[in-house]
Specification:
This protein is of the alpha+beta class. The chain is built from 13 helices and 14 strands. It has one domain: DD-peptidase/beta-lactamase superfamily (Beta-lactamase), CATH 3.40.710.10. The strands form three sheets. It has a nine-stranded antiparallel β-sheet with strand order 1-3-2-13-12-11-10-9-8, sandwiched between helices.
Length: 342
């Protein structure tokens, strides 16, 4: 079946469109904004496994860790308002929180809490208070501030509960009301029909992305169960849960406009270096900002398991977002990035 493809490409960006079209994912979208204006807006494929519903510009898809900067921004908005001190202990705001980690350390993945401590089934993703209670009562794996390990599943509950304790609004509501881009957690019934179903590029995708047994990566992504299970992540329960580390449902344009708003100063900066060194989850040297990764070429943002990503290129005034329903690798994004005009 020939892939459906539609969109807009500004002069000078034809190579980006060609890179996007080389390997259709059967459902993906790309938005590139330059100084806040669209220069590339492309969609291809379908939202459903049966390939009957064409992907639309407002299609929402689960983008995994691409959403981590969104919940980080929620906290940074409170910092900008003087309601949160980055160097205060988390327990200043969350009184039952036992780990002596600062807000800054939580935001930069150095709090020592990359694992949920109590074994839980997938149903726990729908129980915010249960998982936050588990985190509040546990002890860190390492002294906070000494080791980086991406808090793959725990990040959103750590940051989101901080936001709730300070502001009073649940994190999904805070994001919806304060940011207002085309993305969200805990989707409303009306948005469920816009969602794309995830699929694996190959049946062994969960195993390829499981990490070595007992490694930080394996431990971080395996509890609660189900974050790499299609029957879980394509369910209504998942889409209506709040799991800010990994279940942002977003359009490509929504993510790109988020980064454009940071670049133009409408939102606080996240690209402030906090830690450079080996990250035990990622398995390589990483520079963490406040919820984003900073790259040597000056770009910064965050990718998501399976191939989605959002990032900013300040030198060229670009905000880029690529989202896909076919969980694979980052080859498509790498081609797109290489094709951007220098």
């Amino acid at each position: 079946m020939v892939p459906f493809m539609d969109g807009f490409i500004a002069p000078g960006f034809a190579a980006v469109g060609e890179a996007f079209a080389i390997e259709p994912r059967g459902g993906s979208a790309l938005t590139v904004l330059r100084d806040g204006e669209p220069v590339v807006e492309l969609v291809e494929g379908w939202r459903d496994e049966a390939r009957t519903a064409p992907w639309q510009p407002n299609t929402l898809v689960n983008v995994y860790s691409t959403g981590k900067p969104v919940i980080a921004m929620a906290a940074m908005i409170l910092v900008a308002r003087g309601l949160v001190d980055l160097d205060a202990l988390m327990s200043t705001y969350w009184t039952s929180f036992q780990t002596p980690a600062s807000v800054r350390q939580v935001l930069s993945h150095t709090a020592g809490l990359p694992f949920f401590p109590v074994p839980r089934t997938a149903s726990a993703f729908s129980d915010w208070d249960l998982l936050c209670g588990d985190l509040a009562a546990t002890s860190p794996e390492w002294e906070p501030g000494t080791v980086a390990a991406e808090h793959a599943l725990t990040y959103g509950h750590l940051v989101g509960e901080l936001v709730r304790r300070v502001d009073g609004r649940p994190p999904a509501r805070f994001v919806a009301e304060e940011l207002g881009f085309d993305f969200g957690f805990a989707l409303a019934d009306a948005d469920l029909a816009r969602c794309a179903d995830l699929e694996f590029d190959r049946p062994d995708w969960p195993q390829r992305n499981a990490g070595e047994p007992d490694s930080p990566k394996s431990r971080a992504i395996s509890n609660p169960e189900g974050a790499r299970d299609l029957s879980v992540v394509n369910s209504t329960a998942w889409r209506q849960a709040t799991v800010p580390a990994v279940n942002l449902h977003a359009s490509a344009t929504g993510i790109a406009r988020f980064y454009a708003a940071i670049l133009d100063g409408s939102l606080p900066s996240l690209a402030v270096p906090q830690f450079t060194g080996p990250d035990l989850f990622i398995g390589e040297e990483t520079t963490w900002g406040l919820g984003v990764q900073l790259e040597p070429d000056g770009t910064w943002g965050h990718g998501g398991l399976g191939g989605s990503a959002g990032y900013a290129d300040p030198a060229r005034g670009l905000a880029i977002a690529y989202v896909t329903r076919r969980l694979g690798d980052f080859a498509a994004l790498d081609r797109i990035d290489a094709a951007l005009p220098r």
